[in-house]
Specification:
The protein is of the alpha/beta class. Helix 3 packs across helix 4 (96-111) and helix 4 (96-111) packs across helix 5. It contains five helices and four strands; from the N terminus they run E-H-E-H-E-E-H-H-H. It has a four-stranded mixed β-sheet with strand order 1-2-4-3, sandwiched between helices. The chain has helices at residues 16-29, 44-55, 82-91, 96-111, 119-133; strands spanning 2-8, 33-42, 63-67, 73-81.
Length: 137
C-alpha cells in the first residue's frame, strides 16, 4: 500500500507527502483500497514514446494511465508529461501545481472506472476532478 514518485529526466518541485495524503483520501472516498500506485514524471518525448509503443498513438498527451487493479484494490502507473502540464497550465491560465493535481486525479479517476470518451462522461469526469481538487487547495 504505497504511492511512489519517479522522475524520468525531469524534476518537478512537488510536495509528494501532500499529494500522497490527498490521493489516499480520494481513493478511500471512491470506495477503493490503495495498493501500489506509481506516479512517473517525464518529458513530452518520453511520454510520446510510451504512447506510440503501448497504445499505437502518435501524439503528445499529458497523462497515460496503466491500470493493474485487482477488484477494488487500486494499482497502477500514471505517466505524466511535465512539459504538457506546463503548456496546458499556460493555455488554461492555471498555475502549474493546480494543473498537475488535476492531471493526477484524472488518472486516478480512470483507475476507479471513470471514462471521458463521451460528452456526458467528460462532464462527469470534470465534476469529480473539481470535487477532489477542492480537497487539496
Amino acid at each position: 500500500m504505497a504511492i511512489t514518485f519517479h522522475n524520468e529526466g525531469v524534476s518537478p518541485s512537488v510536495n509528494t507527502t501532500q499529494i500522497s495524503s490527498w490521493l489516499s483520501s480520494c481513493v478511500d472516498d471512491l470506495g477503493y483500497k490503495l495498493g501500489e500506485l506509481s506516479i512517473i514524471f517525464c518529458s513530452d518525448e518520453y511520454l510520446l514514446h510510451i504512447n506510440k509503443k503501448h497504445l499505437n498513438h502518435d501524439y503528445y498527451t499529458d497523462i497515460i494511465t496503466f491500470n493493474y487493479n485487482v477488484e477494488k484494490k487500486l494499482n497502477g502507473d500514471l505517466f505524466i508529461s511535465v512539459d504538457r502540464v506546463k503548456d496546458n497550465a499556460s493555455v488554461f491560465n492555471e498555475n502549474f501545481n493546480m494543473e498537475l493535481f488535476r492531471v493526477i486525479i484524472h488518472g486516478v479517476l480512470h483507475l476507479c472506472g471513470f471514462n471521458d470518451k463521451t460528452t456526458r462522461e467528460q462532464k462527469e469526469m470534470r465534476e469529480k476532478e473539481n470535487q477532489y481538487l477542492s480537497l487539496i487547495i
